[in-house]
Amino acid sequence: MTEEIYRLAAGLVRPEEKEEALLRLLCREAERRLTRQAGEGREECREALLCAAAFLGAAGLIDSRCGQSAGGSVEKFSVGEVSVTTGSGGTGGGGSDSAGERLRRQAERMMAPYRSDGEGFAFLGVRG
Question: Can you give the pTM of this predicted structure?
Answer without folding.
Answer: 0.69
